[in-house]
Amino acid sequence: MNRLFRTLLLNGLLVGLSGLFACGLGEVAVRIAVPQQLIIRRADIYQAADTLGWLHQPNIVTTINTGEGEVTLATDPRALRIAPGTTRVPDARKVLILGDSFMEAIQVEHDSSTAGLLQAALRTTLADPTLETWNAGVGGWNPEQYRLRAEALVRETQFSAALVAVYLGNDIMQWRTPAYRPRTPTELHSLRFPRQLSAREFVDALLYPVNDFLEERSHLFVLLKSRLETLRMRLGLTAAYFPPDFNKSVAEDGRWDNTATILEEIAVAARKTGVEPIFVLLPAPYQIDPALMMQYARGFGLDTASIDAEQPNRLLAAAMTARGLRNIDVLPAFREAQRAGTHLYGTVDQHFTAAGHALLTAQVLPLIAEQLSPRSASRPATKR
Description:
The protein is an alpha/beta fold and 384 residues long.
């Protein structure tokens, strides 16, 4: 028995050492041949905030890497993202930008984000070198939080235009939330013993911490994760998900009117400063890429016949138009750019690339410029 045990132990050690050696060689090979972007997690860039739930920390200048390259993140005293070294001009015309992580845009430098590009383009187009964009986008927010932030900002600041970005991947609201308890987004996971015997607890206690550790250190691990995305979907080991808003079965429920009502309340707040906001509908990456849509369908076991890739655009836009909200759907432009080979979304972090922000800016620039022009009509027609 002792001899058998020693044999098994020796074989196990040999297998383990061989595996470690193979992983080491793989890590070296990936770093040389196809280096990946390692994640830099920065939970300290956020602060808990009454009513809103969380905000950026004010007056920070730091770096972050969500998987698409290292980016500088700077904020002003109001916790709005700015270009490093920016000084606000008290009497400048201001364009308010509301949204979630797609407007926060920590995957690209500020000057390559929609807020940065729009500010530069408007200054040139309108010959107004002091015009400012006020980027109030924060990762993880939803339209209720856009509303709360808008109501707070318009009480203290006069805006000349407003752009509200509605991401169709997760911004459709089924119910109302008047306020959010103060907290900070959970980004870091600590290794610990599972508190109960469940798959969810096993993932939270063990797999998430190991994942975070390796994403920050291993090029091989990041490469394997991207290559095994479909399998991870099937096993429930991915943060990706497919929202029910694309399922034809929810076409008649109240989520579209509910979301449009929240957006209407944002418009009411903006109108207090004499501004009619422009709402832009942002497509999810699987809406513009049929191959990615099929990957999600396979990974999550979806019946493609039950999916309508344009349903959120169509139904939300109709509900918004019925309320007189000016909206623009950029899905057609994004699909055309995708077919032309433009890389609009990141590969590790599926937010807009610099090219995605540039395309979005080109779509909304004429509408914002028209709104800021003294010759603009008081109430332009809705654009779809």
